[in-house]
UniProtKB/TrEMBL annotation:
One Gene Ontology MF term: zinc ion binding
Any GO BP annotation: protein maturation
Pfam families: HypF_C, HypF_C_2
Domain HypF Kae1-like: 21-117
Occurrences of domain Carbamoyltransferase Kae1-like (ranges): 126-366
InterPro entries cross-referenced by the UniProt entry: Carbamoyltrans_HypF-like, HypF_C, HypF_C_2
Family, per entry: Belongs to the carbamoyltransferase HypF family.
Protein name from the UniProt record: Hydrogenase maturation protein HypF
Length: 382
């Protein structure tokens, strides 16, 4: 079946290392794009954007109907989160066609997309670093160290969680993530004065005292926000990823001026459960008077900490291939330093090639996982 003639799917075909029956994949919420994979080839749709408006949802629906012009799939993959428009439409279409709907955990899909693009069948280690994705335990993930093999994955470790003071609002106001660091460090009495320009600052310590009201996240994106808030680079965001962009720009300026820094040898802790805790680094930033130097210190130490974390997983598992994925890999300082550090350790590093490492490329990973499910005979229509 030739489906490359469909205008929304006219991008270059992505060869896959495995052939299989046709599958659709519906992506996630942010930067939504769809994928169809069949007979060892995958095609990605145009990106419709975030599914936070009726217009974007209608564009996604139109793409889904366009996919059907090339024939029905054997299965439809979607994000694990049941309330995304993409997940609901995927399940509705699967029921209509009488084929399985396959939920794929967000970070499993991120790693799978990199494996698919690089033609690597697995098993492999996967590092997925982003803002948020629903985990299998119902919590917000985003700093995940996985082992991935086909349709299955194991969560080997994750970043030590930080509380979201104010829930989703904390993802838009980095000062709240900074306040969470201070609270965890036993310095809650500094929150009100340090963030006096924020009306909610006076009461935030009391909110953080009530853990049940502050869901926790392992997201590296929120760690970036905390660092930007502690360095006063971006207390409140006006657009997506503004804090992370400000942090990277400040670090790049410092490093470009020749102000290179060694990694803070005591800037992180890896516990017996495989959790990577960056609190020592973040607490040091709270006392850093030079924001640019602090931003550079954050990037340099973070890359070294992640490389050390992965190296310990390599020693435990014997796997020496690492797929780097997730939206945080758009940060060039992090991606370049981390990739170089891993290669220096003799590891094979796989990265996104033509697709985004973030959510715009997620559907490819979902399709790759779905094909593995079908080939293993593990799914039936619901």
């Amino acid at each position: 079946m030739n489906f490359s003639d469909l205008p929304p799917f006219a991008a270059p075909a992505i060869p896959l290392a495995l052939a299989g029956p046709p599958v659709f994949a519906f992506g996630a919420w942010f930067k939504n794009a769809l994928c169809r994979a069949q007979d060892g080839v995958a095609l990605m749709s145009e990106t419709v954007g975030d599914l936070d408006s009726p217009e974007a949802c209608k564009r996604m629906d139109a793409l889904a109907e366009a996919l059907l012009a090339s024939g029905a799939p054997a299965a439809i993959a979607h994000d694990l989160h049941p309330d995304f428009h993409s997940s609901r439409r995927a399940c509705e279409l699967a029921a209509r066609l009488g084929v399985p709907a396959i939920p794929v955990q967000h970070h499993h899909a991120h790693v799978a997309a990199v494996l698919a693009e690089n033609g690597h069948p697995g098993p492999a280690l996967g590092l997925a670093l982003d803002g948020v994705g629903l985990g299998t335990d119902g919590t917000a993930w985003g700093g995940e160290l996985l082992s991935v093999e086909g349709a299955s994955f194991e969560r080997l470790g994750h970043l030590a969680p930080l509380p979201l003071a104010g829930g989703d609002r904390a993802a838009r106001e980095p000062w709240r993530m900074a306040a969470a660091v201070l609270h965890r460090a036993g310095r809650a009495d500094e929150i009100a004065s340090r963030f006096a320009a924020q009306p909610a600052a006076a009461m935030l310590a009391q909110l953080l005292d009530r853990a049940a009201l502050c869901p926790r996240t392992s997201s590296l994106g929120r760690v970036f926000d905390a660092a930007a808030g502690l360095l006063d680079l971006c207390p409140v965001m006006q657009f997506e990823a503004e804090a992370a962009i400000a942090l990277e720009r400040a670090a790049a300026g410092y490093l470009d001026r020749g102000g290179d820094l060694p990694a803070e040898a005591d800037g992180w802790i890896i516990d017996g459960a495989g959790r990577l805790d960056l609190m020592p680094l973040l607490v040091a930033l709270a006392d850093e008077p030079d924001a640019a130097r602090g931003a550079a210190r954050f990037h340099v130490t973070l890359a070294t900490a992640l490389a050390d974390w992965i190296a310990q997983a390599v020693a435990r598992t014997g796997l020496d291939v690492v797929a780097l994925s997730g939206g945080c890999l758009h940060n060039r300082i992090l991606s370049q330093r981390l990739g170089a550090a891993l290669r220096e350790r003799g590891l094979t590093v796989l990265e996104a090639q033509h697709l985004s490492p973030g959510d715009a490329g997620l559907a490819l990973g979902q399709a790759w996982v779905a094909i593995h499910h079908l080939m293993a005979g593990e799914c039936r229509a619901s």
